């Protein structure tokens, strides 16, 4: 009986951790990616600011959905955390460079 209760509790904690990683982590990665895309489109001269922000925002809905689905698809919770953290760090650094931080 105790083994089933431990298994259920472990499963529930795993789901809670995935939700906590997927929702704010996915939002953070998506926000950084959208900001980077909008800045890059404007910097390359491909678009004006407003259409670039609109395009990046619309693509952000697709990206966020994909990140959340991916977070629940991967078996290892540590991999989800590592990939979200690494991707966020890379996108943040790239955004800093595109904004003229160097």
What would you note in describing this structure?
With 102 residues, this protein is an all-alpha fold. The chain has one domain (2-98). Helix content is 87%, strand content 0%. Helix 1 runs parallel beside helix 3 (77-98). The mean pLDDT is 91. It comes from Acidovorax soli. This is Iron transporter. The chain crosses the membrane at residues 20-46, 52-73, 80-98.
Summarize the structure.
This protein has 102 residues and is mainly alpha-helical. It has helices at 2-43, 49-73, 77-98.
Q: Look at the structure and give the mean pLDDT.
A: 91
Number of strands: 0
Query: What is the first-to-last residue Cα distance?
Result: 60 Å
Low-confidence stretches: none
| Backbone CA Rg | 18 Å
Structural class of the helices, strands and pairings? mainly alpha
Q: What share of residues are in beta strands? A: under 5%
Amount of helix? over 70%
Count, helices: 3
Summarize the biggest pleated sheet.
Answer: none
Q: Give me the strand/helix succession.
A: HHH
Organism: Acidovorax soli
Transmembrane segments: 20-46, 52-73, 80-98
Protein name: Iron transporter
Keywords: Membrane, Transmembrane, Transmembrane helix
């Amino acid at each position: 009986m105790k083994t089933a209760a431990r298994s259920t509790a472990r499963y529930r904690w795993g789901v809670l951790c995935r939700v906590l990683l997927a929702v704010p982590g996915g939002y953070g990665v998506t926000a950084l990616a959208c900001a980077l895309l909008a800045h890059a489109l404007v910097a390359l001269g491909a678009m004006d600011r407003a259409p670039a922000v609109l395009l990046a925002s619309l693509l952000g809905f697709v990206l966020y959905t994909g990140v959340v689905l991916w977070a629940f698809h991967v078996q290892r919770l540590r991999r989800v955390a590592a990939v979200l953290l690494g991707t966020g760090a890379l996108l943040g650094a790239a955004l800093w460079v595109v904004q003229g931080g160097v």
